[in-house]
Each structure stands twice: as structure tokens, then as C-alpha cells.
Amino acid sequence: MMKKLLAFAVATVLCAGVMAQTVEEGTAKIGELTVPSYTVTLEKGAKLVQSAMNQRLKDAKLKTKNVDGYVACLQQVFAEVAATPINLYTKVEDQGRKGNKTTVVTVCALSQDLTIDQVAMNNNLRLFVSAFPQYVDRYEALTQLSAAQDDLKKAQKAQKSAASDLASVEKNIGKAQQKAADKQKEIEKLTAKIASLEKEVNSLQADAEKYAGKKAAAEEKLQKADEAVKTAQEAVDRYSLMAQ
């Protein structure tokens, strides 16, 4: 992403005359020195602008340190401004009020090379400051794109997880439905068996009632036979006594 930002920044410097923001000239205090400075105002949050400036300097392979309230690049070649080592100073200040984002960017440079073309260096520095707002726009867009891509990946991961959960649930539902169908078949078989057993029980109960009736008749017949045997025995006994 940062290679794209660097390429974009170089391009905006080349066409700064067309796309340049309003750059104000002034002076800045660096230690005991007062040097020319260039300032541009952006309607963006200071945190975003500072992050963009840090990346802009990183794209140019510049090392930074804090000096007198500035983010400084000391004794380094910044080819877009000068071909020899310079001290580059940048400051990002939040001047916005509640509900209003306003950030002021100030940039200045010093060179210990007495032969350097100060006018050319300052013109290049002005072009750098003029092009910086477009760099911030691009940086913000790419940052938002990266965040959106991360959100998309998270959403896709959640979607995949949800789809997997749904497939698992559907699989479990299928298993449960199959078990329910199997149990229903078992219930139907048991219901049929119960009906058959009930029929058999009813038949046996009917037989029992029928045999109960036959038992009563047999018992009555046996009772009569017992009485006949008793009567006949009494007659035999009587006639036996008479025959003596």
C-alpha cells in the first residue's frame, strides 16, 4: 500500500501547479533560528494527518526524531526537496473545535550546505506541502479500504462459520428426523402387535367364558352322578343286608 502512496505523492508533486492547495508562507522558530516555513490547512482530524505525514516520511526512507515540537529528519537527503542532506521539520497541529476537524501542517527545512540553492529548495518544499493534502486524501482512502477489506474478511469468516453451523444443524436435523421416522415405524409395529395381542386376549377371554359355562354344566352333571352313585350304593347296601 505504501509503495502506491509514494508513487502517488511523486505524481502529485509533478502536477502540484494544477492541484495545489493554498499554501501560506511564514516563519518558524527552530532552536535559536527563525526560518521560512510553509503551512497548509486541512479539514481532517490531526490523528489521521499525523499518521499520513509519518507514512509520507517513511515512504521517502527518512528517519525521524522529535526536535523542539517538530518531527524532524536530520541531515538526510530528501531528493524531492534537495540533492544534499538537509534538516526537514514537520509539525501537525489540531486546531479544530467540537464537531469541526481542522488541522494545520507546517513544514520547514535547513541546510548546512552553503552552496545549496535556497530558492530551489524552498520552491521544492512548497511543492511538497502543496501536494501533501492529496497524499492525505489518498492515504485516508487506502486506510479506509484496508479497514473495509479487514471487515469483509471478518464478515466472510463469520459467514463461513455460520454456513458451517447451519450445515451441521441441518445434518443433525436430518439425523433426528430419520430417528423419528425409525421410531415411528417401531411404534406402528408395536401398535399392530398390541392390536394382535388384544385380539388374542379377547379370543382367549371368550374361550375362558365358554369353558366356564361348560365347567358349570360338568360340575352339575358330576353332582348328579355323585348323587346317583350314592343312591345306588345305598340300594346295594340295603339289598345286601336283606340277602343275608
The number of helical runs is 4
Shape: rod-shaped
* Assembly context of the chains: single chain
Strand content: 15-25%
Rg over CA atoms: 54 Å
Q: Reading side by side through the largest sheet, how are the strands ordered? A: 1-2-6-5-4-3
Helix percent reads: 55-70%
Q: What is the succession of H and E elements?
A: HHEEHEEEEH
| Largest beta-sheet details | 6 strands, antiparallel
Indicate the mean pLDDT: 87
Q: Your description of this structure?
A:
With 244 residues, the protein is of the alpha+beta class. The protein is built from four helices and six strands. It has helices spanning 2-14, 16-19, 46-59, 118-243; strands spanning 24-30, 33-42, 65-67, 70-76, 86-94, 103-110. Helix 1 packs antiparallel against helix 4 (118-243) and helix 3 (46-59) crosses helix 4. The radius of gyration is 54 Å and the shape is rod-shaped.
Note the main attributes of this structure.
alpha+beta; disordered N terminus; rod-shaped; 18% strand
What is the topology?
Blueprint: H1 2-14, H2 16-19, E1 24-30, E2 33-42, H3 46-59, E3 65-67, E4 70-76, E5 86-94, E6 103-110, H4 118-243
Antiparallel strand pairs: 1-2, 2-6, 3-4, 4-5, 5-6
Helix pairs in contact: 1-4, 3-4
Task: Sum this structure up briefly.
The protein has 244 residues and is an alpha+beta fold.
